[in-house]
Amino acid sequence: EWVHKRSDGEELFIEVTLNPVILHQNPVLLVVWHDITQRKQAEEKLRRNETLLSETQELTHSGSWEIDLLTGKNYWSPEAFRIFGLEPIGSGPTTEEFDQLIHPEDREKYIDAIKMAMKGGIASDFDLRILPKTGGVKHIQAIGKPYYNEQGLVTKLYGAIIDITAYKKAEEAIRLKQEQLNTFIEVSPAA
Question: Which pTM was predicted?
Fold first, then answer.
């Protein structure tokens, strides 16, 4: 691959192929130049979009996921792995491994949402507790929807998760303060 400049200053990306051939019984070198500028621009745009997505997911503590219902494979973004306390290695945990990361009291809610998406094609948006590999309990918002193939069958589910643990802790702190205030008002002589 070479980079060339046109007379107007625009850069061209050129792929050069050299092949020895016989022409009129003489060995010659066949040189073919391919303008790959559009491919290079598309690759750069893809890299930029992947970086932007990865960086914004890290900033917002949100991750994306996909479940291929035909192969059973799960695909996660790097931030989805981090939310669950996992190293972003490979495509994603197996369904069985993922089930173990869901809080036991929330598994039924999760399974029902998956069934609704698969049977009724219904998008889901619900809160769920998880048990990350790093320990403790986290709260996530799980958003998902079905993907239909050409025959109209649901073959994949995809969506996003958002780590809402900080929001849940803030909600609980507000609830406790409200209880304290209510108790104070009830026992206050001025009440």
Answer: 0.75
Closest CA to 95 of 118, 65, 67, 120: 67
Q: Are 164 and 156 in contact (CB under 8 A)?
A: no
**Tens of pLDDT, residues 154-177:** 999 999 999 999 999 999 999 999
Contact 163, 61 (CB under 8 A): yes
Q: What SS3 state is found at 35?
A: strand
Residues with Cβ within 8 Å of 132's Cβ and at least 6 positions away in sequence, in order, are 83, 84, 85, 86, 101, 138
DSSP assignment string, 147-166: EE-TTS-EEEEEEEEEE-HH
Query: What mean pLDDT value characterizes the chain?
Result: 91
Three-state secondary structure call for residue 34:
strand
3-class secondary structure, 14: strand
